[in-house]
Amino acid sequence: MFLTRSEYDRGVNTFSPEGRLFQVEYAIEAIKLGSTAIGIQTSEGVCLAVEKRITSPLMEPKRNAGCV
Fold first, then answer.
1. What's the total number of domains in the chain?
2. How many CB atoms lie within 10 A of CB 68?
3. CB 48, CB 27: distance < 8 Å
4. pLDDT, tens digit, for every residue of 32-66?
5. What are residue 49's DSSP bridge partners?
6. Does residue 59 fall inside a structural domain?
7. Which of 7, 15, 40, 50 could be joined to 3 by an S-S link, Cβ 3.0–4.6 Å?
8. Where do the H-state alpha helices sit in the chain?
């Protein structure tokens, strides 16, 4: 059974056939963009988060996201 790239980047401890960890590569690329990144290690795993930047002055973040 062969896994697709999307299946390799779901698990933080799943290596691709080339020996790559896509989650780590995504974090490194986010750092190169100059955005804020944070990683937290717990006894159950690791959580990586990055800041979502607004790319256009016409875009405004929704203040009511998640509200009903």
1. 1
2. 3
3. yes
4. 877 677 899 999 999 988 777 777 767 666 666 56
5. 38
6. no
7. 7
8. 5-8, 22-32
b/e map of 24-61 (b: 16 or more CB within 10 Å)? eeebeebeeeeeebeeeeeeeeeeeebeeeeeeeeeee
Q: Is residue 56 part of a domain?
A: no
Which residue range forms the structural domain that includes residue 35?
A: 5-50
pLDDT at res. 44: 92
Question: Is 67 domain-assigned?
Answer: no
pTM of the model: 0.39
Decide if 39 is inside a domain. Answer: yes
Using alpha carbons, list the distances in angstroms from residue 39 to 32, 36, 59, 65.
Answer: 15, 10, 27, 24
Q: Tokens 């509200």 — which residue?
A: 67
| 3-state DSSP assignment of residue 6 | helix
